[in-house]
Amino acid sequence: MPETQTSPLAMALGGAVAEIEHALDTLLPAEEGPEARLYAAMRHAVLGGGKRMRGFLVLEGAAQFGVSRTSALRVAAAIEMLHAYSLVHDDLPAMDNDDLRRGKPTVHKAYDEATAILAGDALQAHAFAVMAHEDTHSDPAVRAELCLRLAQAAGPRGMCGGQMLDMLAEEGEEDPSEAAIGRLQLLKTGKLIEFAAEAGAILGKAPGQQRHALCAYGRELGAAFQIADDILDATASAAETGKRTGKDAEAGKATLVGLLGLDRAKVQAERLAEQAAAHLDSFGERADLLRMLAAYTINRRS
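The line above is the sequence of Polyprenyl synthetase family protein; the predicted structure tokens follow.
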């Protein structure tokens, strides 16, 4: 069932959204002078919208190991910056050619294409600058590992590779298999969500078993999240989602909804959400919000 505004998860999400928004506003302040337009475009991309699910995963993962909120918020903000960069570039005419994102004009519509490209590039660079700063963690080895894992999640065997596979699938003559779609979605969406779930454990120098459990949780959650997104694209309105819907079928995109149909895709998403929650057994009640998030992910309407 959808979350009510007074449910524990809704209250926790609401608090996390406000904290992450404040962290982003602080780490990416408005500037004056020649670079002001670039900073404004970056802030347009990253502030004032979004579920902040990736950031919430960092905060809740870090809470399992007593990590300071300040450190966790810096990593959460960095991941949200990198995620925003990917959306700015995905929305460009050369990619998905979208004019609405999070209920407002996409960056290339609000500014121009060249500014949008630079804003995305700058958000990605700034994300790593925040992650690598000594304020994020006192141990340089922890900061280095965070940067390495984020680079892997975002690079050619992660988010960028998944976007390439998505574009190739649109151009292909044959429908891809379920396995091929699963790999595409793992790279494009799942790797960054998996890292967000793992990041708190890296910050907390957690034992390998617990770190692997959070990785597995994030992997299954990411797969469920992407199927839920595809279902929303097929069934929800632009007013609900804050972006244009129906575009997957229109563009001939490779999705499990298109391959399996809505009913079977929903069953698959439910199975993945249950598997994600099962990976948290060793954390006990401390991980209840993460379990609730898995259920919420497949029932949301935005």
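Note on the example: The longest strand covers residues 100-101. The chain has one domain: 8-297.
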